[in-house]
Amino acid sequence: MTEKAPGYRIHNVPKTRIASNDVCSVGLKKYHVPALLEIDVTEARKKGY
Length: 49
Hints:
The protein is built from two helices and no strands. It has helices spanning 15-29, 42-47.
């Protein structure tokens, strides 16, 4: 596409930027599940860890 609308500019995008956009788009499609994790550290604290 060589034509452009008035007021717009065309820029080349570096290949590294394209890869990061791909990763972000994949991440947006995944479900993120927040979790609460409870761990009993009583024995570890008694041993001095």
